[in-house]
Amino acid sequence: MTDLLWAHWKTRTLLAAVDLGVFTALAKEALPAPALCRRVGLHPRPAADFLDALVALGLLRRSGDVYANTPEAAEYLDAGKPVSYLGDSFLARCAGMADDLVGVLRTGEAKGDARDGRDFYAGQYASSDSVRAFQRDMTALSIGSAHALAERFPWDRYRTLVDVGCAQGALPGWLLRHHPHLTAVGFDLPPAREGFEEYVEALGVADRLEFRPGDFFSDPLPSADVIVFGHILHNWGEEEKLRLLEKAYAALPPGGAVLVYETLIDDDRRSNAVGLILSLIMHAEVPGGFDYTGAQCREWLRRTGFRDVYVEHLDGPESMVVGVK
To answer: What's the pTM value of the predicted model, to 2 decimals?
Structure first.
């Protein structure tokens, strides 16, 4: 199911590369990233995620920071080969599909008027309809990981959890369905309450799952044995990521755990195309946001005081990073 969810973004990434002329620029020779960026007008901020996404999609090869076409890309996506070139057909049949992504790749600036993540989420939470739509999107993104987390994290060692940025409450709701000994708090901005309470009531866990309103930058995080950040850290720059992890450390008891789950980019940046594409989406929608590798997240947890840090795959392109206080 997640493959279908991400299929159109893989296509948009391919179309953006064709539109920018990436494969034609590499037709005669492999190029280092800075030279390739200059040749096709690619802004350096999203460049690494974009080019490595093309590697993960099997369209480019990378050696160090030097990129080259794969044989298939060289044959079918080089505009200098009119007999075999398919790029114009792709662009014609999918006209406009990648225009917004191309704009971000050329300028390095997120689309819309948001100056930072707070502006972006103010827009998402501006009306009841937009909040509900955003909550449903977050449930679709997290539901596979919710079921995997229920089985792969040692919940028998803990009794309480907080889901930071809980949206509809899918993650804590399904965890409580699996583990009757757990109680939980969903922590999110006040407009999320109505959709959250309806969802957890339908799951039958409302007696053990409380909504608590707040802003995770301006308010303390609720205390619990486990604090979960699901698809939260990637919305922010590194400074904000570290600040949130520091707040989690302060809210946990000794022996408590922080659990981060995301569409982590693989450490070699060669195989998880969805993680790299999701980082491009962050570049497009949330100024300063970016996705990251498991190695990066492990380092951030260690820097904020956590120990026994490890990474484990969950479901589809998703993985978790766990640290203990």
So the answer is: 0.91
